[in-house]
TIGR03083 family protein
Amino acid sequence: MTNTADQPIAALRSGHDSLVALVHTLSPEQIAGRSGAAEWSVAQVLSHLGSGAEIGLAALNASLHGAEKPAEGFNRSVWDRWDAMTPPDQAHHFMMSNEKLVRAYEKLDDATRTNGTVDLGFLPAPVDVATAASFRLTEFALHSWDVAVTFDPDATLAPEAVEPLLTTVPLLIGWIGKPADVLGGHGVAVTVRTSDPTRDFGLEITDKVGLVDSPDDADAELVLPAESWLRLATGRLQPTHTPAGVTVNGDITLEKLRQIFPGY
């Protein structure tokens, strides 16, 4: 029987292997150069993923294997150490650090994958292993795209990551959606229809963004691949990276949706 944690863990492995293969092809100049993340170099993206893997492994070990819980200030100490590395070292250590985290997830037995809980530190309560792995996958898949799109403008999120991200990204919608005065104080109900996989749901946009059931009297309709929706919601569907077939009809435009979801 397939465990609910199996899919995100498998996607973490395939995503790691793909990104490592890409990193091995890059020159020192490319590693130090600008990434798809506006304010980060490729090395800084890899540093973020590598330091996050180190922090995530500490949380996993403390929650599931009886290791000592990281002391206050642990995260900052990890970030400072990674920030002090040279770009080549950031890339090199990313590969080792993330491999350790992926292997730690892979080694979990079925009982732990089903019954274990992980205190990630940034949520109000521990979560099950499937949720913990899916949160890591969300971070990993999005930032892997930030690296990949630097060298391929048509890059997409890894297909195996899309379905798990459709579960975790909605949990972040109130944080990643920033309407501010984009709509001039007006509210808009948007029906969203995705393909690959098919999903129908609604966005209620006022002074904040809420995820709701598909509204019967929507003001607008957004139709796009699920992968594109995930990139739109996380600020990664710029005009140069938008595939054909993305359509918006009604009282909002794609450009305004990009402004409402500025990314992180």
User: Anything to note?
Assistant: The CA atoms of residues 58 and 70 lie 7 Å apart. The chain has a mean pLDDT of 95.
